Amino acid sequence: TNQPSCVIVIFGATGDLAKRKLFPSIYNLFKNGNLSDRFAVVGVARREWSNDFFREKVIEAVHDASDAEVDSEDVASFSDHFYYHPFDVRDTASFVSLKQLLDQLDDTYEVPNNRLFYMAMAPEYFGTIALHLDEAKLTEVDGWKRLVIEKPFGHDLPSAEVLNDQIRQVFSEDEIYRIDHYLGKEMVQNIEVIRFANAMFEQLWNNRFIANIQLTSSESLDVGERGNYYEKSGALRDMVQNHMLQMVSLLAMEPPINLSTEEVRGEKVKVLRSLRHVPASEADDYFVRGQYGAGEIDSQAIKGFREVESVTDDSNTETFVAAKLMIDNHRWAGVPFYIRTGKSMTVKSTQIVVEFKDLPMNLYGTQDVSLGKNLLTIHIQPDEGITLQMNVKKPGSNGETTPIAMEFSKKSALKMNSPEAYERLMHDCMIGDATNFTRWDEVAHSWQFIDSIAEHWRDKLGEEFPNYPAGSMGPIASDELLAKDGFHWWPIT
Ligand code: BG6
Asked: Which residues form a coiled coil (predicted)?
């Protein structure tokens, strides 16, 4: 049914993610009739909050997150479904009392013993919590039990394996929903549709017709208050291992035989398996890293990464990554996939540009005028849409051409109504659809690919840092990476 009924347990309910994404998403699901009113949410965290205080926080979060007026009475009755349970992650007793609360809520709200456990707290506790859930029998249910787990899923392959082994002792693979919120974005989901529902793209979607594919996910925000996490993570682990590689696999995968969860994920994992492994000795040919120094964004002075709190003066952490990925299979042999992502860049934007090869012969160019490239741009955010660049006759001219852009793009009005990624993914999880969540083998292959680069960078000191000013599109080496192959980054539009 489309109106699932369950008890949602959020570990880390006092945190930022719960406030900014989870509470507002659950509210929208509820308001739009995508959640049965037979539900309850239990917030779990270390702080000693009361139910009332927690409910106030939920109400505040819902108001803060909506652009439109929200009905205060609605939100208040929604917040009545929320309960707070203080706990100590290592103390079995707090799990025993949590179980009592959950059993009682099942009765109160007539929930058929379905439980969704959402891990939205420091990742070092994910494993411990899972084991405690088992020990205190919170996972012995008549309905379903599911685990939603936020990134980071480990910080390299060995740590991801340890975490996976721990949670697999309690949840089976099909009960584990590893969230990658990019997979909940409207236009990321659209990649598949654009490719597999359009004859004019899918026929050309290979190395005979495509010169390269460029994927940019730039952020204008700096690291802000996340210095502590980010200093240990860096852009490679924070964005590339998950969001960027997931988008690459959607762009590169073969058409699945149908759209079922396992068929789609099976095709995606094949892409990750065919990524050309880059050994540390060749890392510099394929990967560029950057760290921002002081600069300016929107006429505001931004201090350099090394001056951020909890970041060391000689930090070796990258806040920017550009890379050339090669997918060694029949479809993609020879076609570079260029990716770049970073903090404190010019704009916040996620965009994909597919650059088509030139025609075999140019009837219209002269020595110094060549035809414009055919480009298919998929705008993921902030605008959502696609643009197709093609050549037409320059009006009034004789044999001259000019590139034009055909645009289908949803800005402002429509965009506000796009459901938030989290809303969609939480609903998917409650109805048991794991298609837009990452399977263990996807995670494992991504780490395997990333680890040799991370190791190489760890051993290579960051004396060249900072190497791009805040407010730019990254270090010069990122442009050189494409120039070596005769390409350049297409501007963000
Ligand atoms: C998160 C990263 O996964 O994605 C953040 O940890 C990053 O560092 C964020 O800012 C970007 O997400 P979005 O949806 O704003 O593009």
From this structure: none
Of the candidates 274, 219, 223, 267, the residue with the CA atom closest to the CA atom of residue 243: 219
- Residue 377, annotated ligand binder? no
Outline where 110-260 has alpha helix (H).
Answer: 126-135, 157-168, 186-196, 199-202, 227-235, 245-252
Contact 434/263 with Cβ under 8 angstroms?
Answer: no
CA 102 to CA 470: how far, in whole Å? 48
Which residue bears the tokens 């205060």? 72
Q: How far is the CA of 431 from the centre of ligand 1 (A)?
A: 25
pLDDT by residue for the chain (493 residues), tens only, comes to: 689 999 999 999 999 999 999 999 999 999 999 999 999 999 999 999 999 999 999 999 999 988 777 888 999 999 999 999 999 988 999 999 999 999 999 999 999 999 999 999 888 899 999 999 999 999 999 999 999 999 999 999 999 999 999 999 999 999 999 999 999 999 999 999 999 999 999 999 999 999 999 999 999 999 888 888 899 999 999 999 999 999 999 999 999 999 999 999 999 999 999 999 999 999 999 999 999 999 999 999 999 999 999 999 999 999 999 999 999 999 999 999 999 999 999 999 999 999 999 998 888 876 667 889 999 999 999 989 999 999 999 899 888 899 999 998 776 434 444 568 999 999 999 999 999 999 999 999 999 999 999 999 998 877 789 999 999 999 999 999 999 999 999 999 8
**219 CB within 6 A, ligand 1:** yes
The rounded Å distance from CA 247 to ligand 1 centre is 14
d(CA 470, CA 302): 7
What tokens appear for 118 in the block? 């959402």
Cross-strand bridge partners of residue 391: 403
List C-alpha distances in Å: 73 to 70, 80, 225, 258: 9, 11, 34, 44
Q: Is 2 exposed, middle or buried (0-12, 13-18, 19+ CB in 10 A)?
A: exposed
In sequence order, what are the residues at sequence separation of 6 or more whose Cβ sits closer than 8 angstroms to the Cβ of residue 36? 1, 3, 4, 5
The DSSP H or E segment spanning 459 is: helix 440-459
The helix (H) or strand (E) run that includes residue 16 is: helix 16-17
Residue 149 CA to residue 12 CA, distance in Å, equals 12
DSSP result, 41-60: EEEEESS---HHHHHHHHHH
- Ligand 1 site, residue 238, Cβ cutoff 6 A: yes
Question: Ligand 1 centre and the CA of 228: distance in Å?
Answer: 16
Length of the chain in terms of residues written: 493
**Residue 14 known to bind ligand:** yes
